[in-house]
Amino acid sequence: xxxxxxxxxxxxxxxxxxxxxxxxxxxxxxxxxxxxxxxxxxxxxxxxxxxxxxxxxxxxxxxxxxxxxxxxxxxxxxxxxxxxxxxxxxxxxxxxxxxxxxxxxxxxxxxxxxxxxxxxxxxxxxxxxxxxxxxxxxxxxxxxxxxxxxxxxxxxxxxxxxxxxxxxxxxxxxxxxxxxxxxxxxxxxxxxxxxxxxxxxxxxxxxxxx
Length: 210
Ligand code: PRP
Ligand code: URA
Prior knowledge:
The protein is of the alpha/beta class and 210 residues long. The chain has helices spanning 11-21, 27-45, 83-90, 139-149, 165-174, 202-207, and strands spanning 5-7, 51-57, 62-68, 73-79, 97-98, 100-105, 112-118, 127-131, 134-135, 155-159, 162-163, 179-182, 184-185, 188-189, 195-196. It is globular and about 65 Å long. It binds 1-O-pyrophosphono-5-O-phosphono-alpha-D-ribofuranose (PRP) and uracil. The site of uracil has 10 residues, from helix 6.
């Protein structure tokens, strides 16, 4: 329905997501699953990174092979919950730089409040993966991407685990040039701005704060 939104239907991702949603899943398992899903999503979300040809020598002969060209990724988690996805991505792309954007949702207004922003100096030469498990109203992701755009990166992708239709609508309207990757597009937001069926409060479940 949106040409810049990918919903991953891979069985491994869907299986892991089903355990993530279960309220009886422990914080320890929750953290591991968030990271594993991020790795699987990253594998596909990096599919179109540009390659260059380089000469190497195998034990048998010289060969022309392909490597990712230029500077690698910048991964920018939206604090706190986005932190849970970072290792999953850097496991695959270890030379990534990591930035941080601190935002929390005001519980009354649901508006994002920014409290921290530190991005890699050379972000303008990198492809940026902004990560946050939840895209609910979209306010936090919209703000984070707007901040990053001020620094003129090569490209921006947004990776989340669960998205609400309301968040996708708002985000794609605000940033039509940013591809959204998610593992599920859920039914709706409830009156408190939580995704239904969702998985609850991602930050609290990752860090065990509740
Ligand atoms: C959660 C989540 C997103 C945001 C999504 O963070 O991790 O950042 O809410 O909601 P939105 O799309 O309506 O903006 P939260 O504000 O709970 O902060 P936390 O990660 O520090 O717990
Ligand atoms: N933030 C979360 O952590 N969960 C939701 O369902 C919505 C926003």
